[in-house]
Amino acid sequence: MAAPSNATPGPPAGPGPVLGEHPGALAGLPLDWAALRRVLVVRPDNAGDVLMLGPALRTLRRAAPEARLDLLASPGGAAAAALLPEVSGTLVTSPSWQRAGVAPAPDPAAEHALVGLVAAGRYDAAVLFTSFSQSPWPPAYVCWLAGVPLRVGMSKEFGGALLSTWVPSPEDGVHQVDRALHLLERAGAGPADGADLRVRVPAAAVESAPHVLRAAGVDPHAPYAVVLPGASCASRRWEPARFAAACRLLADAGLTVLVVGTDGERELVEQVAGAAGPGVLALAGRLSLTELAAVLQAATVAVTNNSGGMHLADAVRAPLVALFAGTEEIGQYAPRSTSATVLNRPTACTPCRAFRCPYAHECLDIAPDQVAAAALGLAERRAA
Ligand code: SF4
Question: For residue 234, how far is its CA from the centre of ligand 1 (angstroms)?
Answer without folding.
Answer: 11
